[in-house]
Amino acid sequence: MLAAFRSHDAVLREFEKLGRYHQSTGHGCLCGKRNCATLSIIDSNQIYGHIDRMNRRDELG
């Protein structure tokens, strides 16, 4: 079970890294593409919510 949680967190950390380079701007994505496929995947409230909960859990220890 612990391995599953670690795997889940590892995937969320990769999404978090992708989010640094793929953010919505007024003209498409921060990476420069207008119809960025990566942005369409990671730019969801569900993904951001999971990342936020993971970060808060990490802060608590």
Average of pLDDT: 87
Instruction: State the order of secondary-structure elements, H for helix, E for strand.
Output: HEEHH
* Helical content (DSSP H or I, runs of 4+): 55-70%
Annotation, overall tally of beta strands: 2
Number of helices: 3
Unreliable stretches: none
Distance between the termini: 19 Å
Oligomer: single chain
| Sheet with most strands: strand arrangement | 1-2
Q: Look at the helices and sheets and give the structural class.
A: mainly alpha
Number of domains: 1
What fraction of the residues are assigned to beta strands by DSSP? Answer: 5-15%
Using the alpha-carbon principal axes, give the shape: elongated
Major β-sheet, in short? 2 strands, antiparallel
Radius of gyration: 13 Å
Question: Can you put this structure into words, describing what you see?
Answer:
It is a single chain. By secondary structure, this protein is mainly alpha-helical. α1 (2-21) crosses α3 (45-60). The longest helix has 20 residues, at 2-21. It contains 3 helices and 2 strands. It has one domain (15-60). Helices cover 69% and strands 7% of the residues. The model has no long low-confidence stretch (mean pLDDT 87). It has a two-stranded antiparallel ribbon.
